[in-house]
Amino acid sequence: MRTRVYWLLPDLASARATMEDLIGSRVERRHLHFFGRSDCDLSDLHAANVLQTSDVICSAEAGLAVGAAVGGLLGSVAAVSYPGAGEPPQWSLIPLLVLVGALFDAWTSSMIGISAPNRRLRRFAAAIEQGSILLAVDVPAARVAELEARLQALHPEARLAWSEPGKPSFL
Questions:
Q1: Are 9 and 158 in contact (CB under 8 A)?
Q2: What are the average pLDDT values for consecutive 10-residue runs of the chain, which has 171 residues?
Q3: b/e for 28-65, b at 16 or more Cβ within 10 A?
Q4: Which of 144, 113, 150 is nearest to 20 (CA)?
Q5: Which domain of life does this protein belong to (predicted)?
Q6: Domains of the chain
Q7: What is the pTM for the complete model shown?
Q8: How many CA atoms lie within 13 A of 168 on its CB side?
């Protein structure tokens, strides 16, 4: 498991230099995620993707849970209420409707979540709108202190903003 560490950088030049220093410190480019205003050209940086900038993952997880619960409830009602004449309840409907409800609601919720900004990034929205660049670095927990010290020494203009332990590296 990796820890996601967030740094606020004042401008693109600082972001580029920070990226080069981290790559020189054996942090793979794919573990660097840069966020900026929509008018900011992050093409030469490893810009964050839709999984990191939108709320698609959280929305899909919530939809999965709600859909499974609603599917289970509807499956229970259907199993008891609609058996054939003289037949026992159709309990096999419950797992089927749990699965269908979970998948359907995860899909619909993710379609909504893809258009919503990531909730974790709200705390940085004002700084990003003022032109700062947000860098999220996914590093093994054992290297966090080392990389924080390195960045503070090499880039005094950067500000350590937040650390999020236990973050899967694809989010």
A1: yes
A2: 87 90 90 88 86 89 96 92 79 93 96 89 88 89 87 87 64 51
A3: eeebbbbbbeeebebeebbbbeeebebbbbbbbebbbe
A4: 150
A5: Bacteria
A6: 2-53+118-167 (3.30.70), 56-113 (no CATH)
A7: 0.75
A8: 6
